[in-house]
Specification:
Helix content: 25-40%
EC number: 3.1.-.-
Order of helices and strands: HHEEEHEHEEEH
GO molecular function, one term: phosphatidylinositol deacylase activity
Radius of gyration: 48 Å
Keywords: Endoplasmic reticulum, Hydrolase, Membrane, Protein transport, Transmembrane, Transmembrane helix, Transport
Shape: elongated
Largest sheet: 5 strands, mixed
Number of helices: 5
Biased composition (Low complexity): 21-40
Strand order of the largest sheet: 1-2-4-3-7
Organism: Piptocephalis cylindrospora
Structural class: alpha/beta
Mean pLDDT: 77
């Protein structure tokens, strides 16, 4: 057991020999010495087998066959071929034509409660393309009625109206004989009407769909009145097919309206044909 010395009191001299550390050779260890066990032959063979197994596993993980080496090069070759085809062998023209629209929705206040009973909920508009179509002149082309779908908007007709107006203008610019009033052929443009159904959910309520269909029939009847001979008497006449005769013919009066519908608007249009207020032949 190690011996402990008492601490010196204040003022007492301590010899230097007593402050030296004890000799490590004289101290004894409290722990027992561990005995070394020799490794047997079975333990050596198992250790050697584990080393061989780890080497084989490592070599299998990093071994490369010919297929695995050629596959990345083949993928790179296909990528380069696709890039070359996209850059040098594209047959499509590298440009796009943008569509610009300047819509003008002309209100038709005459289509009021005297024509239908939904004047407070629905309305009818005539689409005009600013800079192309005359804004204040009465319609003199072929009437088309656009019906939007469930929770749609009457302004969805603007793409159809703008493109048809621009195409008709280009057609007249290329061949003046297509003029509707003085030309030989008398090709007419398209007059797009559109109904504002207040963005109602016609797909979720059957009564709403019936009311919209009834309004469509009333709108068709009113549109045809805009093309009556009395309302078109002030317009110029169209040249005859035989210019030598010197005669002229009035503009043809439409007797029907073309319906263009989107989504549930098509169901509303089909329902309109079955209602009692449907104008026959329109």
């Amino acid at each position: 057991m190690p011996s402990f010395q008492e601490a010196p009191s204040d003022g007492e001299e301590v010899p230097l020999n007593s402050l030296r550390s004890p000799d490590p050779s004289s101290s004894t260890s409290d722990t027992d010495e561990t005995s070394t066990t020799p490794i047997t032959h079975n333990q050596r063979s198992s250790t050697f087998s584990a080393g061989l197994l780890s080497r084989r596993t490592f070599s299998r993980l990093f071994s490369c066959s010919r297929a695995s080496i050629s596959l990345p090069f083949l993928g790179l070759l296909l990528l380069l071929a696709a890039f070359d085809s996209y850059i040098h062998h594209q047959s499509d023209a590298k440009y796009c034509t943008l569509t610009y629209m300047r819509p003008y929705f002309r209100d038709l206040p005459q289509f009021d409660a005297s024509y239908h009973r939904f004047s407070r909920k629905y309305s009818l508009h005539l689409y005009r393309e600013e800079g192309v179509d005359p804004l204040d002149t009465p319609p003199q082309g072929i009437p088309i009625l656009f019906i939007h779908g469930n929770a749609g908007s009457y302004k969805q007709v603007r793409s159809l109206g703008a493109e048809s107006a621009m195409y008709y203008r280009q057609l007249l610019g290329q061949d003046p004989s297509f003029l509707p009033l003085t030309g030989q052929h008398g090709i007419l443009g398209l007059d797009f009407f559109t109904v504002n159904l207040n963005e109602e959910f016609s797909a979720l309520h059957g009564r709403t769909m019936l009311e919209q269909a009834e309004f469509i029939n009333d709108a068709i009847r009113y549109i045809l009145t805009l093309y009556s001979p009395s309302s078109r008497s002030h317009l110029p006449t169209m040249a005859s097919d035989q210019p030598s005769s010197g005669t002229s013919e009035p503009l043809p009066v439409p007797t029907s309206v073309i319906l263009v519908a989107h989504s549930m608007g098509g169901v509303v249009a089909r329902t309109a044909f079955t209602l009692p207020n449907y104008p026959e032949g329109a």
